[in-house]
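Figure 3 (text version): structure tokens given as input.
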């Protein structure tokens, strides 16, 4: 990896502009989930410990380039102060004389929060003047927002070209985890890809079949692949229009030496609802009125066997309708198996994506995975093999 970390930078007495993702949910002015704030705390604390002065750059919501008080970052200050255990000051803009005065007056041990970068329409256009205005506030740039690294914005890409730049602790952990999973993984490598639609994950599947040994496909996506194999899936969620594309992926995987695993047995119901009457059937015997809502016990046994043979696992998407009991059984069972193997030191497990994180948390498996990415779009684009502008800008080569 050609990027610097905080350990490579001289931070003593320096103003460190830190791009963070604190785009947290708020209800009636109260932060309802502070996970993202807690995850940047190590970076802020390490900068303070090294004698640096952290100045936080962040977006919040989608103000569309307009100043909107309900999207002001100042409402996050109490939560930030609790996470950092220090005083957080606020500047009412992220550039300009007021921000420059606040940055110049910052004292050791204090943190400065700049106002929402997206109050400026130029931010999302990666405007060089806005980036230069931000750069004037600091001596060093630290990107700790992997979740925003797939966007070439002034605060993620433009500014990194103007100051000595490094990755923060969260960014460092994310990049290291992904490198160990896809860059130079221990083999065999298995990927689990689930979710509703093949069409949204074509690039992902195309990249993975060239890099992994086993590709386990679940959820509605698996139904589309069953259709491609000439199997009737009744009223199941499936993109029948994508069956030729699915067939091409199956053929390409075979050529690449990647074994695609589809459900051999399925859990079928006639209603998409919790505890709907259901039965386990072979995957090719779904009734005309039936819907496949989960993978069956034989499929779970196969998945667990593959996990036992694997050294690296990448997971994106559930194996069934995990939000409805008991159609969360396959996802939960596979997640707990991966967690147990990871806990025993036999598997490196990396997972990401909104539904994936929710499913792994629900099963209780998340705490034992090697790494859980909360980055969403950036995680997916990395898995698709794309260059992320915010990461590329940190490259020192």
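Below: residues designed for each position.
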């Amino acid at each position: 990896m050609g990027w610097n970390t905080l350990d490579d930078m001289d931070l003593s007495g320096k103003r460190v502009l830190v791009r963070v993702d604190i785009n947290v949910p708020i209800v009636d002015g109260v932060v309802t989930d502070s996970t993202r704030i807690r995850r940047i705390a190590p970076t802020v604390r390490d900068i303070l410990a090294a004698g640096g002065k952290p100045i936080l750059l962040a977006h919040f919501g989608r103000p569309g380039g307009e100043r909107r008080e309900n999207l002001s970052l100042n409402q996050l200050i109490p939560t930030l102060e609790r996470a950092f255990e220090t005083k957080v000051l606020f500047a009412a803009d992220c550039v300009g004389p007021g921000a420059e005065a606040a940055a110049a007056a910052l004292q050791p041990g204090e943190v400065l929060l700049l106002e929402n970068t997206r109050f400026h329409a130029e931010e999302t256009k990666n405007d060089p003047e806005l980036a230069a205005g931000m750069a004037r506030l600091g001596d060093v740039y630290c990107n700790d927002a992997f979740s925003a690294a797939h966007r070439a914005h002034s605060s993620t890409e433009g500014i990194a070209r103007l100051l000595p730049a490094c990755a923060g602790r969260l960014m460092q952990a994310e990049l290291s985890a992904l490198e160990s999973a896809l860059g130079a993984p221990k083999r065999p490598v298995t990927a689990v890809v689930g979710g509703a639609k093949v069409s949204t994950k074509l690039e992902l599947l195309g990249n993975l079949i060239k890099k992994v040994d086993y590709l386990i496909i679940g959820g509605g996506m698996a139904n589309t692949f069953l259709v491609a194999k000439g199997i009737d899936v009744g009223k199941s969620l499936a993109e029948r229009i994508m069956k030729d594309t699915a067939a091409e992926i199956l053929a390409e995987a075979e050529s690449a030496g990647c074994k695609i695993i589809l459900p051999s047995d399925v859990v079928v119901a006639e209603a998409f609802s919790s505890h709907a009457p259901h039965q386990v059937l072979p995957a090719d015997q779904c009734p005309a009125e039936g819907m496949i809502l989960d993978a069956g016990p034989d499929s779970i046994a196969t998945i667990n066997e593959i996990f036992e043979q694997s050294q690296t696992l990448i997971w994106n998407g559930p194996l069934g309708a995990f939000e409805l009991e008991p159609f969360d059984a396959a996802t939960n069972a596979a997640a707990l198996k991966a967690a147990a193997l990871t806990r025993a030191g036999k598997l490196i497990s990396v997972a990401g994506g909104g539904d994936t994180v929710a499913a792994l948390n629900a099963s209780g498996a998340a705490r034992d995975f090697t790494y859980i990415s909360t980055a969403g779009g950036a995680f997916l684009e990395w898995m698709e093999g794309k260059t992320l502008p915010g990461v590329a800008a940190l490259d020192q080569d």
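The chain is about 35% helix and 15% strand.
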